[in-house]
Structure formats: structure tokens, C-alpha cells
Design goal:
The chain has about 210 residues and is an all-alpha fold. Helices cover about 60% and strands about 0% of the residues. The protein is globular.
């Protein structure tokens, strides 16, 4: 039993029982080991959940970074959609991610993305706030979507109100964020470079 095996089984357990029911006791039983054996890899449940959150984000965290040839508008939309798709892969994916902290690699990737937006002509502060807004908007949208999914047929809706098309609603909100960001991209604005303070800011988590 290695760390990768433990994480894979933990994520499968998450899909089966949901975040609230995940425990080291259940995970040990699933792996066919005694509970203390898990402490070779994770000292407590908090550390396990943090590792699960990082592993669950792999599809988005390993996606290609933007290049100077990319259109920043297209990239901004694709990057946010990638984040949403990744959160939706796992049951309670948004809740799992919302409680996590970015690692060094995450911060490096966020720094690269911010530098790309600034080099594309966006003001540094606006680029940072757009990444923050899109990340929080995506997490909130997926939280609502996964909460409704968990309720299933027990969810009560007002009479005459049709089911929510979550993807269409998400796209509409994302378009509004992009439209607002475009208002802060005046022609002729000299590109700058993100400061070290912004590269270390946790507000870029999930972007």
C-alpha cells in the first residue's frame, strides 16, 4: 500500500458516500488494513482531505498553460470551464476544494496565468480580481449544482418553476464576468508584470 493507492481509494470512497461520510476508519476498512496504517501516509484526516483535494484537481492543474499566441478572452473562458469540469468530476468536489490551500506548484501556475493576462494588456489588479472572481463564482456554482444533485427527487421547487440548466446558467454568468473584464482592457495600456506579492496571494486558488 502506497500513498497513491490510498488517495485513489479515498477518492472512490468520496464518490460513493460523500464528503461528510468519509473517514479514516472507513478508508482503512476499504483498503483491508488497520486504521493506524494510514498514519504512515497521512497524520490525520485534515491532511488526507488536503491531499484528496490536490489529487482531485489534477485534470485542471495539469492542463496546458497559456502561451503568448493565445487570445486572452478565449483562454479565460476555457480556463474557467476547465476548473468547473474538474470540480464536477468528483462527488462534493466543490466542497472538497473550497477547504484546501494552494501549494507551491499551484502558485507558480497562477503566477504564469496572471503574467499572461497582464502581458495581454490587462491592468495587473484587474487581472488578479478577475481570476479571483471567476474562481469563486465557479466554486459557488458547482456547490449549488452538486447540492441539488445530492437532493435528487427530494428537492422541492416552486410550482411552475422549470429545472435549472446549470451549464447554461454558468455560461451566462461567465460571459458577464468576461464582459466586465473587457471594460478594463483599454487600448494602448502598457503591459506590466505581476509583483511577487500577487504571485504569493492565496486569492488565486483554483484559477
Amino acid at each position: 500500500m502506497n500513498r497513491e493507492t490510498v488517495l485513489a481509494e479515498a477518492l472512490d470512497l468520496l464518490d460513493e458516500v460523500g464528503l461528510d461520510a468519509v473517514s479514516t476508519r472507513q478508508l482503512a476498512k476499504r483498503l483491508g488494513v488497520e486504521q493506524p496504517s494510514l498514519y504512515w501516509h497521512f497524520s490525520n484526516k485534515k491532511e488526507l482531505l488536503a491531499a484528496m483535494a490536490e489529487a482531485a484537481m489534477a485534470p485542471h492543474a495539469t492542463a496546458p498553460l497559456p502561451t503568448p499566441a493565445d487570445d486572452w478572452r478565449t483562454w479565460f473562458l476555457d480556463n474557467t470551464r476547465s476548473f468547473r469540469r474538474t470540480l464536477l468530476i468528483r462527488r462534493d468536489g466543490a466542497r472538497l476544494h473550497a477547504g484546501s490551500s494552494p501549494g507551491v506548484t499551484d502558485l507558480d501556475r497562477v503566477g504564469h496565468k496572471l503574467a499572461f493576462l497582464v502581458a495581454s494588456g490587462l491592468p495587473e489588479r484587474d487581472a488578479q480580481m478577475a481570476m479571483l472572481a471567476s474562481g469563486r463564482y465557479t466554486i459557488g456554482s458547482v456547490l449549488e449544482e452538486q447540492a441539488e444533485l445530492a437532493l435528487g427527487s427530494d428537492a422541492e421547487r416552486p410550482a411552475g418553476l422549470p429545472p435549472i440548466d446549470h451549464e447554461s446558467a454558468f455560461e451566462a454568468g461567465l460571459a458577464l464576468i468576461l464582459g466586465g473584464l473587457e471594460q478594463h482592457a483599454p487600448k494602448g495600456r502598457a503591459p506590466g508584470r505581476p509583483t511577487r506579492r500577487h504571485l504569493n496571494d492565496r486569492s488565486g486558488k483554483g484559477g
